[in-house]
Design brief:
- The protein is an alpha+beta fold and 505 residues long.
- The protein folds into 2 domains: 183 residues, no CATH class; 225 residues, Transposase Inhibitor Protein From Tn5, Chain A, domain 1, CATH 3.90.350.
- Helix content is 37%, strand content 20%.
- It contains 18 helices and 16 strands.
- The chain has a 9-stranded mixed sheet with strand order 8-7-3-9-10-14-13-12-11, with helices on both faces. A 4-stranded mixed sheet has the order 1-16-15-2.
- Helix 1 packs parallel to helix 18 and helix 3 crosses helix 16.
- It is globular and about 80 Å long.
- About 2% of the residues have low confidence.
């Protein structure tokens, strides 16, 4: 069904980014700004109304990149497709998470909306109980991998359709930042299959998340029992991810914390033609090497945050050391970084065929109790990397610790689209839920990359949904055409209009 969008004239939109305060009217007389006028309430039976008008962009994306066909080609869960196909169930759940759903039952909000059904071109949307039955049909790891593979195909199709300038820059100059991290998902109750005790004693799953630095796209998510280390699945995940990334980027850097300090991760990065910059553990052998570094080989190091210019005055006139003053006044024992140095040595980890660089950061810590200094001691932080020596030790440290932004990606994956809810009792069913959540998460990222201003891809999911999903719309059937009328006063209306046009080409 062909869909056209009718846009009413915007009233106060200027470039789609902000509203000029000078254009806002002030009351002509003294008094309150909010006057609370007398209102008259009416109803309009023409057309169907929804507050999910932004689904037009998601629907246009799914149509252009043939997401439904890719899902149906990859999945073989049903013997008979009456009335639903696999893609109907998967996309219904993805749309539920894309809007504001947090559980299977929230799919009923889409099911009961005639406007939403018209937007996605569906005569009906699966029931929430049917959605649970779909997840339980994922009984093997191969089923989950097929779903993940379909998302990978869409990922590559999106990267292939980016502007030519972006694709050329990526292929000739850019290093993809492939970030590895784990997440402990606490589980409540005893019915969850595959749950186990994590290293900190919590009854949980412990999935691995692989994301792309900068855009925040989720490249891979692997569910694991709670007693597994996230790094256990890292080598296999890197093999699949790097084969995709290297086709579109000049090279890649694999980043991770000390949990990924293991030879199979290093070898997976090297076999994939990528670099690695992994936080290293300070065990006995490495400690001996660090202690043997001569004093003249230590160079002063200034953290990245201290090298940046302050962005503005301190909040509410407080001094920069307000917290320190409070701790001192109350006699709390505190730790303070006095000075830092950096050095590097050649080191060959066990299981690696050649030596790599071990960047060592030495931190002088001062401990006080409010009255004065108690004592000082050194702490050491290691980074293992095979980056060429054209990257200085300071640059390697900066590259490695910029990975901390992935913590925000993981947090938003859980609170933005409810990716960590785990709605069923079966382990494979919950693994499939993670793959559908990955599809919903990337749907917003892909739309931002393809059709929206460049800064939108870095927005938090709550902000993205507020501006590009929560849009009042009326859906009308006019002849052979389906007309979607969006609110003309919407702040980002010009950007939505441009995005819809870009997704059609």
């Amino acid at each position: 069904m062909k869909v056209s969008i009718a846009f009413e004239r915007a009233s106060h939109v200027n470039s789609g980014t902000s509203v000029d305060p000078a254009q806002l009217a002030w009351p002509e007389t003294e008094g309150r700004v909010m006057r609370h006028p007398l209102l008259h309430l009416e109803s309009d039976s023409r057309g169907e109304i929804t507050h999910y008008g932004g689904l037009v962009l998601a629907q246009q994306f799914v149509r252009r990149f043939r997401v439904a066909k890719r899902l149906d080609d990859a999945l073989t869960l049903f013997k008979r497709h009456a009335p639903y196909h696999e893609s109907d169930h998967v996309l219904a759940l993805a749309y539920t998470l894309y809007t504001d759903g947090t559980c299977l039952e929230d799919q009923a909000a889409l099911q009961g909306s005639e406007a939403v059904r018209r937007l996605v071109g569906a005569c009906r949307i699966p029931d929430p109980t049917t959605a649970g039955d779909l997840l339980r049909r994922f009984t093997t790891a191969q089923d989950v991998e097929q779903l993940s593979g379909a998302t990978d195909e869409v990922q590559e199709a999106v990267w292939s359709k980016l502007p030519r300038s972006v694709r050329r820059r990526r292929k000739k100059h850019e290093l993809a930042l492939v970030d590895l991290d784990g997440h402990i998902k606490p589980l409540y109750g005893v019915q969850k299959e595959g749950a186990d005790f994590s290293y900190d004693g919590r009854w949980s799953y412990q999935p691995l998340v692989v994301s792309l630095g900068g855009s925040g796209e989720c490249l891979k998510v692997v569910n694991q029992p709670g007693n597994c280390r996230p790094s256990d699945a890292a080598a296999k995940a890197l093999e699949e991810v790097l084969s995709l990334v290297r086709r579109h980027f000049k090279n890649a850097i694999v980043r991770g914390d000390t949990d990924f300090d293991r030879s199979d991760v290093f070898n997976a990065a090297i076999d994939g033609g990528a670099y690695f910059a992994i936080g290293g553990r300070l065990h006995r052998n490495r400690a001996a090497l660090v202690e043997a570094i001569a004093e003249q080989d230590w160079k002063p190091f200034v953290p990245r945050a201290d090298r940046q210019e302050p962005s503005g005055p301190s909040c509410h006139g407080r001094t920069a050391n307000y917290r320190r003053q409070k701790a001192k006044a109350r006699g709390f024992r505190t730790l303070r970084t006095v000075k830092q140095w950096v050095s590097e040595i050649a080191y060959q980890p066990a299981g690696l065929d050649s030596a790599c660089r071990m960047i060592v950061r030495r931190i002088l810590i001062e401990e006080t109790n409010g009255q004065g200094a108690l004592f000082e001691h050194y702490r050491y932080r290691l980074v293992l990397t095979n980056l060429p020596r054209s990257y200085t030790a300071r640059e390697v440290i900066d590259i490695t610790y910029q990975r901390c932004d992935q913590e925000n990606v993981i947090e938003q994956f859980g609170h933005g689209i409810a990716g960590w809810r785990m709605p069923v009792a079966e382990f494979m069913g919950n693994s499939a839920w993670l793959q559908i959540a990955r599809l919903a998460w990337n749907l917003g990222k892909w739309i931002a990359q393809i059709a929206l201003p460049s800064e939108v891809v870095r927005w938090e999911w709550k902000r993205f949904r507020r501006h590009f999903v929560y849009i009042a719309a009326k859906v009308l059937k006019m002849g052979r055409c389906l007309v979607v009328r969006l609110a003309g006063s919407h702040r980002f209306l010009p950007d939505i209009l441009t995005a819809h046009a870009r997704l059609q080409t």
